[in-house]
Description:
Dna Ligase, domain 1; 5-stranded mixed sheet; 32% helix; alpha/beta
Amino acid sequence: MEEKNIVAIDLGTSKIALTVARVNGDDVQIIYYKEIQSAGIKYSSVYNIMHVTDPLSRIIKDAEEALDIKITQAVVGMPKFPVRQESNSGVIKDRGEDTDITAEDVNELKSYAEDSYPLDDPAKEAIYGAVAQSFSDGENFQIIENDIIGMASDILEGHFKIFIGKKNDLNKIDKVMKKTEVSAGRKFFTAETTAKAVLTDAEMENGVALIDFGGGSTSVTIYHGNIMRHYASIPFGGKNITDDIKTECQISERLAENIKLAFGACMPEKLQSLSEKVIHIKSNSSQPDKQVTVKYLSEIITARIEEIMMAILYEIQESGFADMLRSGIVVTGGCAQTANLGSFIYDLSGYRVRTGYPQARFSVSGCDGIQDTSAATSIGLILAAKEEQCIVNCTAPGTDGTTSSVVIETEDVQPEENFWNTPAVEVTETVTEDEEADEEPKNDGKLFGDEEVETVIPEKKPRKSFINIWWSKAKKVTEEAKERTSELFDKISEEEV
């Protein structure tokens, strides 16, 4: 089988990530990964084409120079919000009584279910994807896809979940890619691709909720019986936490982001003596210096995360699968490595929680960040393109006529000191507002000692009733969030920039 390079681009609210993988049959080798601060993206959707084009062009150029290649096309993730799900069915009749059902028949039925769904406004909406729920051969019902293929039947009926988003959001991705002279060879609805990159087969079979905690939006994807059963998203994420820190501490957005990534944690009561440590924010202007305790910072972060998680737990309950999640919750995305996040979700919901890192379905050496939770979407795009065999070689030889195998590391900015190993109270960490010009730092999850961070809950206690977790509050948060943002988002999404 011919070797080829697959390029994946993740357009996120907080970051743009570019990944290059060398694929030969089933072998996937990541040869390049880099993240860069994004611009012009809100709620995971492009709203300003010009602002997005600049950082995307830079990261493409960096990859081309490092690997001595020319990137010609890439697979790109679709926006995670706003997306709604509907149901549709399709039937193929008179196939012949002894005709075996093939994968081509299933795909034909899926295409029919997508094409035949009556969109509310075809000029503004687009089908992002469809997932088979069950099949019937006229005599047997509730058959899964793997089992229906190979059966003989005159009739094939399929039931599908249809995922619908804004057509203009997809058009803007095409416009951005065109300006970079890199075509979008394939767009994937990342709810399914990210899940398959992070979740185990056992989790998807036994029932699991994957929470993708991103910068501009947070989504939940539910699997049961090895089938994607439900998807929902809300327009709140890590950027809202940053904005809260910025407002409460009266500092710049970039500095708030730096502090969040370096010193942020949930559950201030779990920080013990660390909670009284002080972050000294030194001002280079006429404004007085600021001091923020780790406890106060944690209180800000915890309040916002609680609001987001209550909305997500409400969506889980509404899915009808809340009592079927034997594998609990898996959290991935850029905010998933927030210290004590797993413990906090466990206390709110009673579900077992683990942090979702990309599964070891690829080889890599030296690409910093590719095995972090923030890279889960990128890995999912690579693996999906490989499985579907929908992409030819995404690159052409560079100036010397060869494709380099150089491995590039992500740019990483860490705090100058190991904050958590310094004595309590008396020692402060100095963060100057001039530092906001630096590259966006990345949380490596090591600033807190292992004793302070609980990412996996090995034992499950009885799940609390949703009454006990302020169910009415969760519903109110979700409804208010959607109402508050729908008008603004519609206006942003319909803009032609």
